[in-house]
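Same chain as my last thread, 264 residues:
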Amino acid sequence: MKSETIRTDAPPARSAKRTGEFAPELQLSVDHDLCPGCGEPLALRLVLELIEELGHADNALGIVGIGCYTALGSSIGVDMVQALHGRAPSLATGAKRMRPGTLVFTLQGDGDMVNEGLQEVIHTAARGERVTCVLLNNGVFGETGGHMTATSVLGQRTKNTLDGRDAARHGHPISLAEMLAPLGGAAYIARGSVHDAPNIVRTKNMLRHAFEAQLAGEGFSLVEILTMCPTGWFVPTAKGPGYLDDVIGAVHRIGEIKARPPRT
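reply #2:
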């Protein structure tokens, strides 16, 4: 059979044919109420895929912070607990100590983890708690009006910084992954992104390493995932991925910050 080249520079000549169901079983619905172009549903899907692949669909517990992503809770087929703003790492610590065989993870935005709960995640990492924290970083308090966060990069516009973040007035952005990596309790620290297909695959591998580090009892793990928020950035939806790569990614560099220790 002769292969057909499908052009991507124009609308398809005929409708695509759906060949199967590709969503993970733990994702109860592919529909969501978040803004068009938001990267958080993509990040959540990676987490759910890995929980299934690691065989922990019936043995996982997620601790959810406060943010736009909180609305995704109804579509997650995993036991979830809602934490107070910024307190998810401490709640995860208690859950893991009571149920050490459970795969415990937090799902938090940059406003929740780095603004409201910075001390929580720092101390959790320093103690080497065997939990995995997932940071969804878009540099915006999306749910509460679109003001800047502690991770917003210099020059980045938000709804209360229309001229862009200024170091003299607002300070410099906090790079959480680099802050946590030197701590002795941190077993694996990485930063990924969901702005294009190759980085989605790369980020999934990072999440796998983080979960495996937890299951192996190596200590604390964190994966920071850069996600799109075109609404909060004042950019067209289609330009969200490029803006993330060019502006956010230029400061918050993608890659493994601290690899897992050698296994003997």
